[in-house]
Amino acid sequence: MAPPSPTPVRLHRGMLFSPAAPDRLVAVEDGCLGVSAGGRVAAAGEYAEIAAHHPQAPVTDWRPAAILPGLVDLHSHIPQYVAMAMDGYDLLPWLERFIYPTEAAFADPRHARETSRRFFAAALACGTTTSLLYATVHAEGTRMAFRAAEEAGVRAAIGKVMMDRNAPAELLEETSASLTEADALCAEWNGAAEGRLRYAFTPRFAITCSAGLMRGVAGLAADHGALIQTHLAENPDELRTVAGLFPEAPHYTGVYADAGLLGPSTVMAHCLYLSDGEWDLLGESGTRVAHCAGSNFFLRSGVFDMGQAKRRGIAVGLGTDVGAGPSLSLFDEMESACFASRARYALERAAASRLGAMRGEFGRLPGGADLLASVLSRLELDDSVALVDPVQAFYLATLGGAQALGMADEIGSLEPGKWADFVVVRPPVIDAASPEEGRTPREVLSQIIYRTEPSAILATFVAGAERHRRTA
Ligand SMILES: [Zn+2]
Q: How many angstroms is it from 207 CA to the middle of ligand 1?
């Protein structure tokens, strides 16, 4: 539990936005965030009320800018930052062509440190204060990523990528060495920098990891109480390869279940091609999901089915998945999540329409009418379940991501007692000739989500300390 709220030593004035529930927003037009000397939220609410209680506290007046909780990126790759937006490939050839070479460069610790520095500076400039990240297979390169995160003052969970098969020779590890190095890095960094840094065991995905490596990861993560992150069901070719490598497993999720990798400390990225039974496994085990809509569009991987996660109460956050994702900004990712839900809705309606047109053909088969009814009933045609609107996207990028990391008591919303991680955003001016007055807070949030460029992010704070300020 967070400690009781202390006295504010500084007030930040602006329109406040904070998530209250997956579909509920708290907005205060003339709002105020009071920050304590220890970097916690001491007060959040109406400016007039808070200022009257704390007349001595200095005020930073950000109006007409808005104050939002720091954004949470639930899935991204530090070394791939330099290879964003290389279009024209599916997952597996794209890894070979662009990604493995950028990761091999992390063998040079100095390169790893410089790339990581630029990555965190860019993330802060996008308003991201907490990230769950992949480094590379290199222990020293991963250590440099942690150092850069510590210097940048961000919150991050980072892991050394683990691959003991089906990887290029320069990135391939021996199983026991991979486990030993990850174990040492976890001991060194899990809980470092006053708890801002955590270790995440990072077996890349089932194609590049032996069953023995994955079982070893499950044991180490349990021993340390550390996070686990990996990829699941991103691409149909990947599914076929996994089925060939693990013929005894009932399905892809079963491979991870057999290794002991499912559970509330595990974040699975993507989850595009899962059966109902696999979704049940994720739900029952409490496994968390990183939804990476921009990446899924970019690599033509598929479209996430939010309804499956929502119906099971699975904790979902958003991941930029750079470099497959073309942007490090969670504002772009929120927009993509809204669009992905509409794409899913459109796909399912199109499928229903085509199946409906085949009603006569089904009717001629024995039991065909019942079969058609059963197939149609499984399509997601109720937009209230699966559509993601700006309020929901905002939740996913803040409190949803915090919940997925087990940090919902500490970050993710602007509530007394939580860390004062926040971002100051200038709402977009859609048309300078049209009056901005009269927009409801919900409308302002919608425009922020669909129209925020990095230049609109004025400042980013972690634990009350300014870590980014727009210069130009
Ligand atoms: Zn990824």
A: 14
In a domain, 231, yes or no: yes
Instruction: Say how many Å lie between the CA of residue 321 and the centre of ligand 1.
Output: 5
Residues 237 and 174 in one domain: yes
- 366 C-alpha to ligand 1 centroid (Å): 45
**pLDDT tens-digit map of 147-156:** 999 999 999 9
Total tally of structural domains belonging to the chain? 3
Quote the ligand 1 centre to 33 CA distance (angstroms). Answer: 34
Coil vs helix vs strand at 413:
coil
User: For residues 145 and 140, what is the distance between their CA atoms, to the nearest angstrom?
Assistant: 9
Q: How far is the CA of 203 from the centre of ligand 1 (A)?
A: 11
* CA neighbor of 217 nearest in space, from 264, 163, 171: 163
CA 155/CA 158 separation, integer angstroms: 10
Question: Cα(148) to centroid of ligand 1, in Å?
Answer: 20
Tens digits of residue pLDDT in 17-56: 999 999 999 999 999 999 999 999 999 999 999 999 999 9
Q: Which of 299, 316, 338 is the last residue of a domain?
A: 338
Residue 98 lies in a domain: yes
Q: Is residue 12 part of a domain?
A: yes
pTM of the full structure:
0.95
Q: What is the DSSP letter of 40?
A: B
Q: Which domain holds residue 457?
A: 8-69+413-469
